[in-house]
Inverse folding.
């Protein structure tokens, strides 16, 4: 399918391009080495970039770019295509352009939140004043969120929260937790859980950063000990949190930092043109050309899924199947791209960031390790294949 853009959309893309080139530091390419569809190298999750990211969110909020896909009555542009354009451009420059607050929490509150919840949280999210982290996974519950053990006990006007979350991306630099907790342990398997917003400053919260495989502290383990959560912070209905999270995951799966794929391909092509092997540019080697061409084709396919999904959302459709297709294809492509890059660079690809002879600033070594995280986060590739099989192809669950 061939997607064309209106003049207004083209002008918007240029405006975002100009913004990214103006607002990002001159040495940003040296600092931020995000690998497409990975979870371990996102610059917005690194403490080193917190101050810059916070300021950038405020600037984006003033421009109205944190709510592009939202309805106009809540300060949005009511255009998922523009939102997709924004994500494409900002991720190409590896900018920390969004956050859980506006990408996941905001859209979910719009769908299931009470009027009071919308009035309290949406304006602040839209202005870029706060940041969230996702409190889903636990030591014994990842893709199977129905098995969580974190408890929230009813205590009048509040819940008392106890339990542990892990692999909590950005908890150490965020303001609020977006937590799924068990509120009725006797309820059926997919009932009895509630989604709630928890202030990181609440007494009883302990956050311990975890260094990931890339040597970056992006993940955390978080402990809740008798943490008091006001009932006004409940998202959706009590004991219906599992279904709220399933909707929230749709938004997380939609935007995989697609521009970063294009950026890596551009850098690999430039490397192949500039690097000589056996007396001629690497770009003339048939095997190298084949690998780059294969990646270019797959990236173009990914863009096809990407624009179609945004277009469907602008038509008022809920992209349950499309979100899984996009997430599956994108994160698996992140691994393929890392493998192809490592083959093209050869032994030099293993050199770490900061090594004297490391090509592309050590990006490939870092990305090769980070690429394993993409097919796990936001629902594993196996989960996405199951969704595609049952909801898309109509195959039986068993």
């Amino acid at each position: 399918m061939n997607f064309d853009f209106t003049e207004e959309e083209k002008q918007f893309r240029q405006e975002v391009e100009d913004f990214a080139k103006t607002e990002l530091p001159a040495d940003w390419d040296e600092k931020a080495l995000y690998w497409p569809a990975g979870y371990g190298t996102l610059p917005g999750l690194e403490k080193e970039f917190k101050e810059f990211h916070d300021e950038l969110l405020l600037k984006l909020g003033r421009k109205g770019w944190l709510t592009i896909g939202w309805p106009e009555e809540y300060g949005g542009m009511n255009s998922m295509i523009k939102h997709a354009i924004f994500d494409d451009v900002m991720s190409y420059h590896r900018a920390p352009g969004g956050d859980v607050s506006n990408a996941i929490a905001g859209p979910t509150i719009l769908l299931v939140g009470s009027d009071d919840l919308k009035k309290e949280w949406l304006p602040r999210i839209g202005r870029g004043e706060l940041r969230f982290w996702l409190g889903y996974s636990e030591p014994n519950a990842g893709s199977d969120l129905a098995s969580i053990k974190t408890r929230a006990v009813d205590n009048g006007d509040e819940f008392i929260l106890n339990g542990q979350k892990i692999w909590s991306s950005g908890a150490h630099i965020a303001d609020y937790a977006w937590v799924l907790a068990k509120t009725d342990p006797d309820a059926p398997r997919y009932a009895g859980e509630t989604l709630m917003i928890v202030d990181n400053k609440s007494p009883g919260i302990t956050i311990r950063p975890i260094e990931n495989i890339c040597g970056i502290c992006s993940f955390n383990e978080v402990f809740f000990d008798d943490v008091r959560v006001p009932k006004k912070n409940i998202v959706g209905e009590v004991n219906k949190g599992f279904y709220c999270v399933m909707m929230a995951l749709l938004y997380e799966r939609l935007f995989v930092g697609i521009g970063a794929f294009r950026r890596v391909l551009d850098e690999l092509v430039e490397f192949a043109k500039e690097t000589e092997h056996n007396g001629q540019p690497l770009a003339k080697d048939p095997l190298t050309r084949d690998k780059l061409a294969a990646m270019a084709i797959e990236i173009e396919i990914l863009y096809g899924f990407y624009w179609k999904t945004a277009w469907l959302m602008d038509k008022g459709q809920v992209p349950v199947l499309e979100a899984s297709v996009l997430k599956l294809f994108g994160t698996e492509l992140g691994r393929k791209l890392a493998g192809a890059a490592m083959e093209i660079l050869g032994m030099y690809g293993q050199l770490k960031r900061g090594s004297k002879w490391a090509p592309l600033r050590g990006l490939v070594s870092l990305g090769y390790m980070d690429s394993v995280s993409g097919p796990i986060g936001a629902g594993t590739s196996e989960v996405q294949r199951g969704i595609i099989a049952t909801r898309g192809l109509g195959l039986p669950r068993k």
User: Anything to note?
Assistant: The beta strands are 132-135, 151-155, 158-166, 176-182, 193-199, 205-211, 217-230, 234-235, 276-277, 280-281. Residues 133-244 form a domain with the Butyryl-CoA Dehydrogenase, subunit A; domain 2 fold (CATH 2.40.110.10). The two ends are 34 Å apart (CA to CA).
